[in-house]
Design brief:
heterodimer; A: alpha+beta; six-stranded antiparallel sheet; five-stranded mixed barrel; 17 strands; 23% helix; 37% strand; B: 481 residues; alpha+beta; seven-stranded mixed sheet; 22% helix; globular
Chain lengths: 443, 481
């Protein structure tokens, strides 16, 4: 177990693998990563677990002309890498000819990967991490007598490097870290228990919220969920919290993923240029934001990432492509192998959260969803939900055991307002989103 | 002559890395130089091969090797954990040092002498990757494509995946445990997209278990999966919006048992109950479900996806009765939670890999058969839903709320199955729903071997099953009011 990441060693191993590939007359791409970290958790005032993480991956894709094979190993010795290339080459001897297969276009690669300032080590050892976790959990348990139990608090700090190389002579890397404090506690007793959690996440440890703030937030949220009341089935306005609204963007991106498009497996087939959202709404991607959680100079196959507008004036601007799906569709890759990086919902007139509650007047404010009920092929949407009933713009009481359903096409059109309370803790960022109507099923 | 499988595992994980019993002894002694209650070493070598077909061509194939050793030290409710991807004396030493730091240095404790205990193997010690040639594997996927497309002209796209895992594990613990297991696991999946008048629907079917890939050919399951995927997709082409609100529901047998996995299974895992965070905490001996309900978690069924000869702590798996005639009997335990709760381990200590900590997890969880005909269940419903098949589910073990998503469902009107309805999420509260089970069918079936269960970021293969069930009321998340 090493305590430092050796990016130079990984680069050397990639060069070695590419060299072997060349000797075997195949083209190759190698994607490797290594991360080290520490996770400490505390429960009921004492340490519960301390984990020392050290993870490594080394994945090789081989192209024999238009035939493709892949292999991976976590052993980086010469023989293990040679064996992996042999295995990938052997597979490439059996897969079918696929004229769209191959390395990404050379001129689109990130030949000089930008430094996005993502690697900020946290000077923390297991003792400090344990102390912080205990402080966080104590703050939650001491917050109020309603807090009856705890699932604990955790402190995590991880750093890693991603290195990508291919037979175009490309080898680039970037390092990054992320640190977090989280807490989950239970309010109430027996069959009236409710649990909630809170967390802070950042690439720079000094920008994390304090352990006590996280603990208190978890406690407040759990208490607020007590005494949920049943509501009857009805069509109502739905306000998605900023954390929940992210998934609406996630569904959009899976529906415009080139893979879904060339398979004709998307409800947004042939929709480029179409007015999918209100005209005041935009969805943009900014992969090069300094210090941001989702930032990355290149995508999963080494293509340079770039700023992009996916929805402008409510209209779909194009499909999200990697080099394979781009070739299938006769286009160029958009640098989105592996998804989007810092995707954000923006609007010309973003409202405060209180304004959104006021605008909704009467409806359901969703703070938690369960299950995977978004169908990208049809757009049909049905998910379990919990949150709060709102009347006259004021939260009345907690609600759980309901579902919300609709179709994503309608939901996107029916967005009436977007909050400025943007949650920056994820690569997909959104404020709260108000939708004029969906079907709520309850009692 | 096939080598004894324990020797085979020892060779692959220890000898070939220059390790022997003396190194294991040294590592355990090193753990026990701190004031810990116990600890273990988990060695693992896994190989995973997969092939994927789309557009009628097998375009992708991959072969992955992962190996490493995880070291755990336990002191009361505290756990120290570290792991390394290279299996060597140095790596063992570093990992041991890190793991034992959970407790202070103490008087050197002795550990029991390691003796390999053999548990009856529930599956053959084979490497499934070698059970068919690459050509045969490709032919199998091409057959899935051909069968699906021949089934109906509305089939526009077919995806087929074949995956084989060969895993060797060795567990060594301070309590004297020395256990090994060779775990084959295969899976075949077929997914189709159908189109009619511009409307598209997707459906999938598949199965697998701890056996040879040859089974897919011998039993012609590839044909069955392909036809089943097409049938479900075509049903969905005719589906109307599902109703919204609370209503009676009849669940089909087999995979719909995901209901039990979510509604009671997770809530009966020992860790949550030790901590008192489950809605079922402190309920042993109480009536927690309708008297018609008996639920077991059985890790001992031969060749099943969720079965294990020994769990990841070296404990032999068992057939554990969780709920008997509606009364809560047992929780599922790993060693640590069993000890803290003063009960015996139940063979449910599982982990995703050497790089993850073990926890109490399910194996094959199912409800035993009742004595009603499915037709009687349907006939008893005036207005409700018949849910024949499901996608996945999720549960909040603290509030007991759970969801699961119907992928093939129909309206029941006046005791008869009528029109197909679109997929919808169903939501309920575990204890409530289990008490509202008013009829249990005589048609117990286990799923075809496709389940993956996620908990705290760790995935493990599981099985589910049930007979047809009638639930008097559950909330159906459709759009039609």
């Amino acid at each position: 177990m090493s305590n430092e990441i050796n990016a130079a060693l990984i680069k050397e191993r990639i060069e070695f693998a590419l060299d072997i590939a060349k000797k075997n007359n195949v083209e190759a791409e190698v994607s490797a990563s290594e991360s080290i970290g520490l996770s400490a958790s505390a429960r009921m005032g004492d340490v519960e677990t301390v984990e020392f993480n050290n993870d490594r991956s080394f994945s090789i894709t081989v192209y024999k002309g238009t035939q493709k094979g892949a292999a991976s190993t976590n052993d980086l010795h010469d023989e293990a890498i040679e064996k992996a290339i042999k295995a990938a080459s052997s597979i490439a001897g059996f897969t079918g000819e696929d004229k769209y297969a191959g390395l990404p276009d050379k001129d689109l690669l990130a030949w000089e990967a930008k430094d996005l300032d993502l690697d900020h080590p946290w000077d923390i050892d297991s003792e400090k991490a344990i102390a912080l976790a205990i402080e966080c959990e104590d703050a939650a348990r001491n917050y109020d007598a309603e807090i009856s139990n705890s699932e604990g608090a955790a402190v995590n700090s991880h750093r890693g490097v991603v290195v990508l190389g291919n037979s175009h002579g490309f080898v680039q890397s970037y390092s990054g870290g992320r640190h977090s404090i989280s807490c989950s506690v239970i309010a109430g007793q027996a069959d009236a228990m409710q649990r909630d959690y809170a967390y802070t996440l950042n690439r720079i440890s000094t920008q994390l919220n304090s352990a006590a703030e996280v603990g208190e937030e978890a406690a407040r949220k759990a208490i607020k969920r007590l005494n949920p009341q049943a509501i009857k089935s009805q069509e109502v306005p739905i306000l998605f919290s900023n954390e929940m609204a992210r998934s609406l963007l996630g569904s959009l991106m899976s529906a415009i993923n080139g893979r879904s498009i060339y398979h004709k497996a998307s409800f947004l087939l042939d929709s480029v240029g179409e007015q999918l959202f209100p005209e005041w709404l935009n969805v943009v991607e900014q992969p090069h934001l300094k210090q941001a959680i989702g930032s990355s100079a290149f995508d999963g196959e080494g293509t340079a990432t770039q700023d992009r507008s996916w929805i402008e004036g409510g209209k779909l601007q194009g499909y999200m492509l990697d080099s394979y799906s781009a070739r299938q569709l006769g286009e160029k890759t958009t640098g989105n192998a592996g998804g989007t990086r810092n995707l954000e919902l923006q609007a010309s007139n973003m409202a405060s959260f209180d304004d959104l509650l006021h605008e909704m007047q009467t409806g359901f404010y969703v703070t938690e969803m369960m299950g995977s009920g978004a169908n990208t092929v049809t757009g049909d949407y049905s998910r379990g939900a919990a949150g709060y009933w709102v009347e006259n713009g004021v939260i009345q009481h907690a609600v759980d055991e309901v579902t919300i359903a609709g179709n994503l096409r309608d939901m996107y059109k029916d967005i009436v307002a977007v909050g400025n309370d943007i949650d920056l803790r994820s690569s997909t960022r959104s404020g709260s989103v108000l939708i004029s109507k969906m079907t709520l099923a309850g009692k | 002559m096939i080598k004894n499988s324990h020797e085979q595992v020892t060779q692959a994980l220890l000898s070939s890395n220059g390790l022997n019993d003396a190194h294991l002894d040294k590592a355990l002694a090193s753990l026990l130089s701190h004031s810990i209650d116990g600890g273990d070493l988990y060695f693992q070598l896994s190989q995973h091969e997969s092939w994927a077909l789309e557009d009628g061509i097998v375009k992708n194939g991959s072969f992955n090797i992962d190996q490493g050793v995880g070291v755990r030290a336990i002191s009361g409710e505290k756990t120290g954990f570290s792991y390394a991807e290279n299996i060597s004396d140095d790596a063992l030493f570093s990992a041991t040092k890190a793991a034992r730091s959970i407790a202070k240095v103490g008087q050197q404790q002795s550990h029991k002498i390691l003796a390999a205990k053999s548990s009856p193997a529930l599956y053959q010690a084979i490497n499934p990757i070698d059970t068919l040639s690459d050509k045969e594997k490709i032919a199998l996927l091409e057959k899935a494509d051909a069968v699906a497309r021949a089934e109906d002209s509305r089939v526009k796209q077919v995806f087929a995946n074949l995956s084989s895992v060969y895993e060797q594990v060795l567990v060594v613990a301070t309590d004297g445990t020395l256990a090994s297991d060779i775990r084959p696991l295969v899976r075949l999946n077929v997914s189709v997209i159908v189109e009619e008048n511009g409307r598209r629907e997707q459906a999938s079917s598949g199965g697998g278990g701890r056996y040879s890939l040859q089974n897919f050919i011998d039993e012609d399951s590839v044909v069955a999966y392909a036809k089943e995927a097409v049938r479900q997709a075509l049903v969905n082409l005719q589906a109307i919006p599902a109703p919204a609100g609370a209503m009676p529901i009849v669940l089909g047998s087999g995979w719909p048992g995901v209901l039990l996995h979510e509604a009671v299974g997770h809530g009966l895992e020992g860790d949550f109950n030790r901590k008192g965070s489950s809605t079922y905490s402190g309920c042993i001996g109480q009536q927690v479900a309708s008297p018609l309900v008996t639920v077991v978690d059985n890790g001992t069924i031969e060749n099943r996806r969720g079965s294990l000869s020994v769990d990841d702590e070296g404990t032999p798996t068992q057939n554990n009765v969780l709920i008997e005639n509606g009364v809560l009997k047992n929780y599922m335990q790993d060693k640590m939670n069993a000890k803290l709760m003063g009960v015996a381990p139940t063979g449910n200590g599982r982990r995703e890999s050497y790089a993850h900590l073990p926890m109490p997890r399910m194996t094959n969880t199912y409800m035993l058969a009742g004595d009603s005909e499915q037709a009687e269940l349907i006939a008893s419903v005036d207005k409700g839903i018949y849910a024949a098949n499901f996608g996945g589910g999720q549960v909040d073990i603290t509030s007991g709320k759970f969801v699961f998503s119907a992928s093939e469902a129909y309206l029941i009107e006046n005791g008869k199955i009528t029109t197909p309805v679109k997929g919808a999420t169903l939501i309920g509260n575990g204890p409530d729903v289990m008490n509202k089970i008013s009829m249990v069918g005589n048609d117990l079936a286990l799923d075809t071997g496709v389940g993956v269960c996620g908990k705290e970021g760790q995935s493990v293969p599981v099985g589910v099953g049930q007979p047809s069930l009638k639930i008097d009321e559950i909330t159906v998340g459709g759009t039609a009011l």
